[in-house]
Amino acid sequence: MLRLWRATINTRNGLAFAIRSEQAVREELFALALSVPLAWLIGTTAMRCVELVAAVAFVLVVELLNTAIEKLADRLTTDHDPKIGQVKDMGSAAVGVALLMAGAFWLFALAERMGAI
């Protein structure tokens, strides 16, 4: 039980730090909060609503991992290192792919709601 409590505190601390230090995390949390009521308007089934919110939550998860990679890389060296730059670019690409996936889910659900599919 103590391990679970410590893990919960670590989660809270990590999320709080990410919120304080990263604008992208704040924007994605706002999008997540906005997605909950919008999903119930757009989704045609309860499962579709859950999928829409989960797609936005997935973007936040990838952004948190990308932020962790960037913070670690910045801690390793302040000098410009092309290899570290490539790693940071891959993290950004992961966020981009997650955003495209979420966008596709939402567009599909919107088309479904409008009867186009």
TrEMBL record:
Pfam families, alphabetized: DAGK_prokar
Residues binding ATP: 22, 70, 88-89
Annotated catalysed reactions: a 1,2-diacyl-sn-glycerol + ATP = a 1,2-diacyl-sn-glycero-3-phosphate + ADP + H(+)
Active site: 63 (proton acceptor)
Residues involved in a divalent metal cation binding: 22, 70
EC number: 2.7.1.107
Known cofactor(s): Mg(2+)
Signal peptide: none
Chain positions recorded as substrate binding sites: 24-28, 63, 92
InterPro entries hit by this protein: DAGK, DAGK_prok, DAGK_sf
Gene3D superfamilies reported for this sequence: 1.10.287.3610
Cellular component terms per the entry's GO annotation: plasma membrane
Entry membrane topology: Multi-pass membrane protein
Transmembrane segments: 52-69, 90-111
Entry's cofactor comment: Mn(2+), Zn(2+), Cd(2+) and Co(2+) support activity to lesser extents.
Protein family according to the UniProt entry: Belongs to the bacterial diacylglycerol kinase family.
Protein name, entry field: Diacylglycerol kinase
